[in-house]
Amino acid sequence: MDSIRSWWERYSFQTAVVTAGIGLAWVIRQTQGVAIMETYQFLSRPFQSSVSKQELLQDAQVRELRYRLTELESQNQQMKELLKVRVTPTEAGVWTTVIGRGADSWWNQILIDRGSSDGIKAGAVAVAPGGLVGRVTHVSPHSSQILLISDPNSQIGVVVSRSRYTGMLKGQSQNTAILEFFERDPDVKVGDIVHTSQFSTLFPENVPVGRIKSINLDKQPSPEAIVEFSTPLGLLEYVKVYPFQEKL
Known about the structure:
The protein is an alpha+beta fold and 248 residues long. The chain has helices at 2-31, 34-44, 53-84, and strands at 94-100, 109-112, 125-128, 131-139, 144-148, 155-160, 166-171, 176-181, 193-196, 208-216, 224-229, 238-242. The longest helix has 32 residues, at 53-84.
């Protein structure tokens, strides 16, 4: 008996701690922690913020309105920039929104939300902030497909604005294109501006296309330059479409 009393006096505290731990674990398992959470919430309630659910919802609505306003301001700025783009056709253009673009054809074509019911026809020219975008190739009553100038099948007659040397611009599925000059020794410099030429059959003349990024005058069979498009074709959201009759 004395040995039991001696053992209890020596290990009573440790035994109580272990028993309490086992009991607490059992309670947590049976209640899935609800009791502990309720106790915590009761003890911490005096220190919690008094913000109501209604106030949180109002804050969320204010944030949403702020985000919408920011987007509207961005769209308004894009529209203002579109108004600055000058093209040769005198007929009024049609504002359109880009509604479709495939990941595997990102640099090849886009789908817009206007079609034949809006007066759009195949061959129409599309522009955006910066200059030329492409031309309409297929039309349905309420949508149209535009072949981008970055598509490898796109070939455009262009001219270097400063020196008036001409060449053929070919897309390469990115925001740059290859310009093959017709002359053997063209007067061209990095930074020169490139426009559509009067010899282009698919586009009106003097529409901005891009800027010379690099030059290779030793390229065979003709000198070449890399042209960076002035329009960010990878970020298109709106384009303006002008009617254009293909030159014969």
